[in-house]
Design goal:
- The chain has about 280 residues and is an alpha/beta fold.
- The protein folds into two domains: about 30-185, Ribonuclease H-like superfamily/Ribonuclease H (Nucleotidyltransferase, domain 5, 2-Layer Sandwich), CATH 3.30.420; about 185-278, no CATH class.
- The protein has helices spanning about 30-40, 85-95, 110-115, 115-130, 160, 165-185, 190-195, 200-210, 230-240; strands at about 45-50, 60-65, 100-105, 135-140, 150-155.
- A five-stranded mixed beta sheet has the order 3-2-1-4-5.
- Strand 1 and strand 2 form a beta hairpin.
- Helix 2 (about 85-95) packs across helix 6 and helix 3 packs across helix 4.
Length: about 280
C-alpha cells in the first residue's frame, strides 16, 4: 500500500475546469464525463472515490482509476450497490482494464490526529503519487475537492454516474475490505471480517464490553460516553490471564466484560452483523 504523501500534478494547480456540462443520471455509470474531458484535451482522466470515512475502525482509503478510451468492463456500479462477492469478482477485471490505478490510505491514527477531511486529502495524495502518471483532470465524487491538484471536476453522485469514479470506488472498497479481513483474527470480539469497522449494533456492543482496539478511531462523538480506561483495563487484564475474548467456554463475552446488553434505541436501522457504509 502506498506510503508516500507527495503531491502529483500537471503544473496547473489552482485552475478548475468548471465548464464541463453534467450528463444526466442513469441506471449505470457511463463514460460521458471522461469523453467530455478527452474532447477538451485532457489525456489522463483520473476518477477518484473514498471508502472508510464513516467507519469506526481502520483506515480511510481513496481509489484512483485511469480508464482506457477504447475498452470497457460491463457490470461496474457504485461499490455500495454491489454485494461483497460481486465486488471481488469485478476487482481483477477492473484492475486489468485500467490504464493505471492505485489506492492510497490514511491510518486511524492519522484520522484522529488530522481530522477526517485532511486524512482523506492525504490518502488521495498517496493514491495520485502511486499512479505513476500525472493527471490532466481529476473527477471526484462529491461536492468538495479532496485531491487538490490540477484541473478538478466535482460530481455529485459521481460514483453512480461516472465510470472511472465507480471503478475507483470498487478498487478502494475491495482493498479496504481485504485489509480489514486480514486484521480481524487479531481482534476477534469486533467481527471486522463482517462489519469492516463500520457501525452496527454488534460492533457497538463489543465496544461497550471490551473497549476500543488498537485500530479504532477515538474521536467519534458517541465514543465519549464509553469508559475507555476501565474497558481497556479489563481487556488487558483478561489477555494477561490468558482468557479467551469469547469467555472460558467460547461463548463469551470474556475478558471481564459486562453482561450482554439489549439493543439500544437508535440502532434499529443497523444490521447486527454487517457494517453500514454511509
Amino acid at each position: 500500500m502506498p506510503g508516500s504523501i507527495s503531491e502529483v500534478g500537471d503544473g496547473r494547480a489552482g485552475r478548475r475546469s468548471g465548464a464541463l456540462r453534467r450528463p444526466a443520471c442513469g441506471a449505470a455509470p457511463t463514460l460521458d464525463f471522461e469523453r467530455i474531458s478527452w474532447a477538451a484535451g485532457h489525456d489522463v482522466v483520473v476518477g477518484m472515490d473514498e471508502v472508510g470515512r464513516g467507519a469506526w475502525a481502520g483506515p480511510i482509503m481513496v481509489g484512483a482509476a485511469v480508464l482506457p478510451k477504447g475498452r470497457r468492463v460491463y457490470g461496474v456500479r457504485d461499490s455500495k450497490m454491489l454485494t461483497e462477492e460481486r465486488r471481488e469478482e469485478l476487482f481483477n477485471r477492473i484492475a486489468s482494464w485500467c490504464s493505471a490505478w492505485a489506492v492510497g490510505s490514511a491510518s486511524q491514527e492519522e484520522c484522529d490526529a488530522l481530522g477526517m477531511a485532511e486524512a482523506q486529502r492525504r490518502a488521495a495524495r498517496r493514491a495520485l503519487e502511486a499512479l505513476g502518471v500525472a493527471p490532466s483532470i481529476v473527477l471526484l465524487d462529491g461536492k468538495w475537492d479532496f485531491a487538490g491538484v490540477g484541473y478538478v471536476e466535482k460530481i455529485v453522485g459521481g460514483d453512480r454516474r461516472c465510470l472511472s469514479i465507480a471503478a475507483a470506488s470498487i478498487l478502494a472498497k475491495v482493498t479496504r475490505d481485504r485489509f480489514m479481513r486480514a486484521l480481524a483474527p487479531n481482534f476477534p470480539p469486533y467481527e471486522f471480517e463482517h462489519n469492516k469497522g463500520y457501525p452496527c449494533w454488534r460492533h457497538k456492543m463489543a465496544l461497550q464490553a471490551y473497549g476500543p482496539s488498537a485500530i479504532h478511531r477515538r474521536t467519534w462523538v458517541f465514543m465519549d460516553a464509553l469508559s475507555w480506561e476501565m474497558r481497556s483495563r479489563r481487556v488487558e487484564d483478561g489477555r494477561e490471564r490468558g482468557e479467551s475474548p469469547h469467555g472460558p467456554d467460547g461463548d463469551g463475552p470474556g475478558w471481564g466484560a459486562e453482561p450482554r446488553m439489549e439493543e439500544e434505541p437508535g440502532l434499529e436501522g443497523w444490521s447486527g452483523l454487517e457494517g453500514t457504509e454511509p
